[in-house]
Amino acid sequence: AIVFADGWFEWKKEGDKKQPYFIHRADGQPIFMAAIGSIPFERGDDAEGFLIVTAAADKGLVDIHDRRPLVLSPEAAREWMRQDIGGKEAGEIAADGAVQADKFIWHAVTRAVGNVKNQGPEMIEPVT
């Protein structure tokens, strides 16, 4: 499975408080997060859903968090979606198709993102 997103949030401890950050691609392109899913989704049972695959954060991203979603290039995302890939091939796609950390930027956002009731574009606006 692939989860499409504009970015993701990470919280960083700053003093005695935690500050949320919005992490996204510097070029503004969408993010394709590798996931593992259970299909068919229309069954209606508790086993439905997906897990986002994570990878070790590298370079500057480790300053925010030590893990990050495995973000794939569009080509690698297409390969990841194939129904016939096994564990070894999935590992190769993850290694060869991951978007490098230097392609991402981040900025502090409002702490209101911590409440799922808060929605809207203002949740990803930079704060100082």
TrEMBL record:
The protein's Enzyme Commission number: 3.4.-.-
Gene Ontology MF: a single term: peptidase activity
InterPro entries: SRAP, SRAP-like
Keywords on record: Covalent protein-DNA linkage, DNA damage, DNA-binding, Hydrolase, Lyase, Protease
Residues forming coiled coils: none
One of the GO biological process terms: proteolysis
Highest taxon above the source species: Bacteria
Similarity annotation: Belongs to the SOS response-associated peptidase family.
PANTHER family, sorted: ABASIC SITE PROCESSING PROTEIN HMCES (PTHR13604:SF0), DC12-RELATED (PTHR13604)
Protein name (Swiss-Prot/TrEMBL): Abasic site processing protein
